[in-house]
Amino acid sequence: MNKIQVGRRMDKNNTRKWLKSHHDTLFPFFHYLKRESIKWLFDRLEQKGAEKGALYVHIPFCTGKCTFCILTKESPSHTTKYVNSVLEEAKEWSDYFSPVETIYVGGGTPTSLSSEELKLLFNGLGETFQIEKDAEISIETTASELTEAKMNLLVELGVNRLSVGVQTFNPGLRKVLGRRGGGKEVIKKLNRAREVFPLLTIDILYDLPGQGKRDVIADLQKAVGIGIDGISLYPLIYSPKTAIGRQFEQPPVETAMDIFESAKSFLEDNGYNHININHFSYGRDKFRYSTYFNSLGNVLGLGAGATGFLADCFVKHQSTSKKYIRDRAGIVFNMPEKVVPVLWCVSQVQYGRIDIEMPKRRWDFDPLDVFARTINKCMDRREMIIRGNVIELTTEGMFWANTIGAEMAVEYLYGGKGELLSLEDKKSKIAKEIMLKKIRSTYRDYRFLS
Ligand SMILES: C[S@@+](CC[C@H](N)C(=O)[O-])C[C@H]1O[C@@H](n2cnc3c(N)ncnc32)[C@H](O)[C@@H]1O
Ligand code: SF4
């Protein structure tokens, strides 16, 4: 295993930004997206014919008041109407989308829907799509809401992978995060869920205020003890929109990296595989939904705030349930053909490996050539190595993976070669000034060509 050398990772001028989310990685692409009508996309899908894919359903409702949460969420109201809108939208896409290989119901807290609404949702999806027999069907929940009756109902409805947002078992940190219920209660619920669901996964946060390496390892130890199949380990995003982000300074990046390295070794020593930047699997958990997204497979997003990716288009939705019920049509942003291989390579970074030959064969696109500057810098920092036909990220590289992906995108889209430098193309303009301002402040090292 590659050891991280604390202190080596910062650029000389200390400007390298640690991007914690893949949304930040995708940010440099936004400028190139071209707005199209939903009819345009339906015509495109009509030509392609039905294809297999993944479904993402966003249920924005939640009764929690967590101090850190950056997700699209709101207090439950008009929930049945909302579920019906989701099902109506589902029908509009069903001809182009078959079979469904995986479903991910995320939130918010989807289990805040009543039993009747959950039945309506899952039965409705089952009637609308041809869902594969062995489809991976996941739903997010939080331990404080997980009743025996809901667990049994979910299994009855076909859910075979339960994702519980634990965040931490530590009582002090649970308070800081505004989590309901104590760590012991969470463990009890997880042990029961372990008996009920074929696959049980949890979310754990690190880089929390005042949290040390021992605290994170103690959380992971508990998870291993319960026999959790998959662990998503996210660094806390200190957003100014959250109470925690306003109250606390983000710890130094060196601290976070040290914790990440120890957590990764601990999980690997206990039989887990690091299957993508934030996810560790004990073996059976494939997290098929995330694999779809990161390999540019067809992902149909349904519901407020949901984003899908279909036929090289991102499809976004209205951000609140009220707006969505009024207007559920997706908003379509087409990724120009020439940008698709860049997005593909950048998405592969999430897995810590980029196949060099595949993009050469498919698009005549050589990652070693196109991202030469980023790759050389990363190799100097021991974040990447080239092994045969694969660019591999080291442990240190996995920590920086979102940043590295964005650096690759910026190298090509804003400072590189090809025909993609026409930032003035009005059709590709989406809130250009805001975008460029944010991109410039994020990537101070780069010269922009606008
Ligand atoms: C919307 S939550 C759904 C889970 C469920 N509602 C719960 O609270 O347990 C999905 C996951 O997003 C992650 N998340 C939310 N806010 C975050 C932040 N500020 N930084 C990093 N991850 C965050 C948490 O790990 C959370 O489990
Ligand atoms: S973390 Fe989960 S429970 Fe907490 S506010 Fe966000 S969606 Fe709600």
Spell out the key features of this protein.
450 residues; alpha/beta; TIM Barrel; 9-stranded mixed beta sheet; 4-stranded antiparallel beta sheet; 16 strands; disordered N terminus; disordered C terminus; binds S-adenosylmethionine; binds iron/sulfur cluster
Shape: globular
CATH superfamily of the largest domain: Aldolase class I
For the sheet with most strands, the description reads:
9 strands, mixed
Task: Write out the distinct hetero groups bound to the structure.
Answer: S-adenosylmethionine, iron/sulfur cluster
Mean pLDDT: 88
Question: So, CATH architecture of the largest domain?
Answer: Alpha-Beta Barrel
Report the strand count.
16
Secondary-structure-derived class: alpha/beta
CATH class placement of the largest domain: Alpha Beta
Q: Would you give an account of this structure?
A:
The strands form 3 sheets. This protein has a 9-stranded mixed β-sheet, sandwiched between helices. Strand 8 and strand 9 form a beta hairpin. The chain is built from 19 helices and 16 strands. By secondary structure, the chain is of the alpha/beta class. The protein has 2 domains: 20-33 and 336-441, no CATH class; 50-294, TIM Barrel (Alpha-Beta Barrel), CATH 3.20.20.70. Residues 1-13, 416-431 and 444-450 have low confidence and may be disordered. The structure holds S-adenosylmethionine (SAM) and iron/sulfur cluster. S-adenosylmethionine (SAM) is lined by residues 62, 64, 68-71, 107-109, 140, 142, 165, 167, 203, 205, 234, 236-237, 239. Residues 62, 64, 66, 69, 71, 73, 107-109, 142, 165 line the site of iron/sulfur cluster (SF4).
